[in-house]
Design brief:
Blueprint lengths: L1 E2 L5 E2 L1 H4 L10 E3 L5 E3 L3 H20 L5 H22 L8 H15 L15 H26 L4 H24 L14
Antiparallel strand pairs: 1-2, 3-4
Helix pairs in contact: 2-3, 2-5, 3-6, 4-6, 5-6
Length: about 190
């Protein structure tokens, strides 16, 4: 059951796919306030939604169980972060979440050889899609920083989103390694 800004329960909103409430170019935040659909907070929410959807596509593939569980955990954190954005002033993510994402990235990175050059997003389809999700995470991070230009945001959330981008980079490399797929790297211009 959803609670409206006037405190009454609103069970009808759950099943409505078309509300028409955004036809004027504004949308509602979870605290009941309405903002323009191009407001930085909505831009950041949209990028988080796009990232979460992209991760869902990745999870629809036959990933190793540890990677699937890790992506699900990241999806949960992204929804927590979305909750912070949907209710200005809310703080949900903590240093514990930040340490968890960092630890998972470190664990995956321990499987990998050190990089000598930049990695080209390619080869195994899951690795390539993981790189795509990484770029969306970076955009979401930029959008979150834009929100912080005018409003207070949880600094831990910004750091978590940064680490999610790092984690997705490492995960893409791990997918290529685990599938026995060569990892293409950038070749300096003079060596091509």
């Amino acid at each position: 059951i959803l609670t409206r800004s006037d405190g009454k329960d609103d069970t009808t909103r759950i099943n409505l796919g078309i509300t028409r409430s955004g036809d004027d170019g504004r949308t509602g935040l979870a605290d009941g306030s309405r903002v323009a659909k191009d407001h930085p907070r909505i831009q950041a929410l949209g990028a988080l939604d796009e990232l979460n959807s992209g991760l869902g596509v990745l999870r629809a593939r036959a990933l190793d169980a540890d990677l699937d569980a890790l992506i699900e955990r990241v999806q949960q954190l992204l929804f927590d972060l979305g909750g912070e954005l949907a209710v200005p002033g809310t703080v949900t993510l903590t240093d514990t979440d930040l340490v968890e994402v960092e630890s998972q990235a470190d664990t995956l990175n321990a499987e990998l050889q050190p990089l000598k050059e930049f990695v080209l997003p390619a080869r195994h389809p899951d690795a390539a899609w993981c790189h795509h999700c990484r770029t969306v995470a970076r955009r979401a991070e930029r959008d979150l920083i834009a929100v912080g230009d005018d409003e207070d945001i949880n600094p831990v959330s910004r750091a978590v989103l940064n680490r999610v981008g790092d984690l997705l980079f490492v995960m893409a490399r791990a997918i290529n390694l685990r599938t026995g797929t060569d990892e293409p790297q950038w070749v300096r211009r003079q060596d091509r």
